[in-house]
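Attaching the record inline, Q. Sequence:
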Amino acid sequence: MKNVLSNKNPAGYIMIKTLTVREILHKEIGPGKGSMSWLLEDESGLSRTVRAIIDVAHNGKIEKIRPMYWSDAPLVECLHLIEEGQSFTLDFSGAKPQQNTVPHEVYRNMTVIQQLAGLGSRFTRLLIVLVLVMGLWLAQGVASEVMQMQLNMARVSPTDSQTESPSQL
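Structure, as predicted:
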């Protein structure tokens, strides 16, 4: 991938990639519908798969082709004309500004949301543990008070020497 300053697009960068088609897969989904997948490799050896949905005519020719993801549109436009093993160079410079993408912003937001979700589950566990500890502490305090009351009542209870029987009166 080459990043060269340019006046061609609002972002100011040219993004030219050389890709090689390693494998092409066709699959019939239903009558007149199908899918295509291309396994690509770039000049640095990184692989990626591009997928598209196709409408097939009665004679077996492709009538319409739509990328699975809108960001793959420039690739799909070229790929359906290229055969396995062929290499091609594509300039992605105009694609990103047209699609109004903000690089990595989406992934940063997803990371923050995932971290907040993890924090929420940890907070819930902490709250449950605190409630259990408070419950045990209160139960221990109540049990201690009950035992103290029983001991006090045992000491205060009248003994035989302190009570007067009706015959002594």
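Residues 54 and 65 are 4 Å apart (CA to CA). Residues 2-101 form one domain.

More tomorrow.
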